[in-house]
Amino acid sequence: MKKGDQFEGIIEKVEFPNKGILTIEGEKLVIKNAIPGQKVRGIVTKKRKGKSEGMVLELLEKAPEELTEGVCPHFTICGGCTYQSLPYEQQLKLKEEQVKELLDSVCQEGSYEWQGIKPSPISAGYRNKMEFSFGDEVKGGPLALGMHRRGSFYDIVTTESCQIVHPDFCRILTVTRDYFAGHQVPFYQKLRHVGYLRHLLVRRGVKTGEILVDLVTTTQLDWILKEGGEEKEEIGRQEEEKLLTGWKEQIESLPLEGTLRGILHTKNDSLADVVHNDSTNILLGHDFFNEELLGLCFRITPFSFFQTNSLGAEILYQTVRDYIGNTKDKVVFDLYSGTGTIAQVLAPVAAKVVGVEIVPEAVEAARENSRKNQLDNCFFLAGDVLKVIDELEDKPDLIVLDPPRDGIHPKAMPKIIRFGVDRMVYVSCKPTSLVRDLALLKEGGYELVQACAVDLFPGTSGIETVALLSRKKTDS
Fold it and tell me: By CB atoms within 10 Å of each CB, which of 111, 172, 227, 375 scores lowest?
């Protein structure tokens, strides 16, 4: 088997996050976005050092468990969901097997208590945040607004019937796409770095129903400035203001089930294809919305981190609270604290909780949230854990780790271990990063005691893992 060869085979298993495994001519071949039991025809795209990768050309037969109806109309085209054609019970089984296999690769099976997988309370319409992209589905085609086409960096699929968000998201997406298409407003082209429309950010509280809408654009107005002299720039700004006012009025007129909390316009001239905030103007209302978790209220700004599945997050944080155990009269460090959700969940019976987060906006939101929840024993510091950890004066009794996808910085790990706490809880959104860090924690004298998976992302390959670690007792 060599690069360019075509093959047929049945997907034997799927490794995290979406790596379908099949055996061709006695060799292991990896293809993305597959489901166990599918029969596929594909082509070998890479082959090096005994590792082969392929791409599906045609799905010959569905897996026996796959659904034949009720699947999202954008499935297989949109890159957002991988497992939506599987019944939810099968999705859970698949994800549990993936996480358990990864943990067993660094911790001997049976040496820790595996508590299985906890499902999301709802498997449809669960997301409280979406970042939609502007673009076109085919080069030169009409304006599209939605998610990237599966396997493509450039093509955008308009996802007006997305099933993992509330219908309010789809209403806002559709009217926005139609409005700007009608005004022939150009989208930002990543290769040429020209254009205006970049992203549409929508956030909606599942508990509160409050909605925040943010249009993200460049500052480029060449498409407006067709003529003019010294007053050209001022004319452009006036025309932009009219355009944005018209869009705002379109959003206001929608028959939404939720309540509009704010409509915003964010300017972003960065070259990276991310939602970045150079400056934000409020077109209507406020620049935040409220959500509730476990009896606490959280103020969430456009760019602050907050778990995208509010109902699932309650299960996740309750699990963290159960794992960390007794916090009475103890000092708890919440490293990578985001908007301070975990810190505030643990704070009511702790002596003190100290959160560290690198995003200043998230830290300010965490401070505001703790004031709103009347928690005077929560303290939040802005900065990189790697650096801030050296400046902390308190000595923790317990530590909660909730790092970003890439896990804990290798240079920060020895500093965390040196605190010598009896228990740590590690919350991971990427189990491959977790197992890498578990190996370092084991070397530092910790052992895995309990672990479970929590599904916050039905239909997709994403999964959260919660692990309780205990410091090994040494013979004196």
Answer: 227
Asked if 190 contacts 198 with a C-beta cutoff of 8 angstroms, the reply is: no
Long-range Cβ contact pairs of 249-256 (< 8 A, separation 24 or more): 250/175, 250/176, 250/179, 251/172, 251/175, 251/176, 251/213, 252/284, 254/171, 254/172, 254/175, 255/171, 256/168, 256/171, 256/172, 256/211
E strand spans, 122-258: 129-136, 143-148, 156-158, 197-204, 210-217
Residues in contact with 303: Cβ distance below 8 Å, sequence separation at least 6, in sequence order: 275, 277, 359, 361
Instruction: Tell me how far apart the alpha carbons of residues 404 and 407 are, in angstroms, rounded to a whole number.
Output: 6
Which pLDDT does position 170 carry in this prediction?
A: 98
C-alpha–C-alpha distance, residues 309 and 122, integer Å: 9
Position 308 confidence tier, pLDDT thresholds 50, 70, 90: very high
Known catalytic membership, residue 78: no
Question: Which position among 81, 378, 429, 452 bears the catalytic label?
Answer: 429
pLDDT tens digit string along 124-170?
999 999 999 999 999 889 999 999 998 888 899 999 999 999 999 99
Reply yes or no on whether the pLDDT at 228 is more than 80.
Answer: no
Cis omega (within 30 of 0) for bond into 121: no
Q: How do residues 414-459 score in pLDDT, each as one tens digit?
A: 999 999 999 999 999 999 999 999 999 999 999 999 999 999 999 9
Average of pLDDT values for 389-404? 95
Reported as a single tens digit per residue, the pLDDT across 168-178 is 999 999 999 99
% of residues, the chain, pLDDT over 90: 83
Distance of CA 71 to the CA centre of its chain: 22
Closest CA to 419 of 439, 447, 438, 400: 400
In 3-state terms, what secondary structure has residue 91? helix
> How many helices and strands, by DSSP H and E, does the chain display?
9, 23
Q: What is the pTM of this model?
A: 0.93
Residue with tokens 């039905």: 458
Q: What is the enclosing helix (H) or strand (E) of 265?
A: strand 259-267
**Distance, CA of 452 to CA of 114 (rounded, Å):** 6
> In sequence order, which residues have a C-beta less than 8 Å from that of residue 408 and are 6 or more positions away?
385, 401, 416, 437
Neighbours of 312 (CB within 10 A): 25
How far is 249 from 256, CA to CA, in rounded Å?
13
367 within 8 A of 376, measured Cβ to Cβ: no
Query: Average model confidence (pLDDT) for the chain?
Result: 94
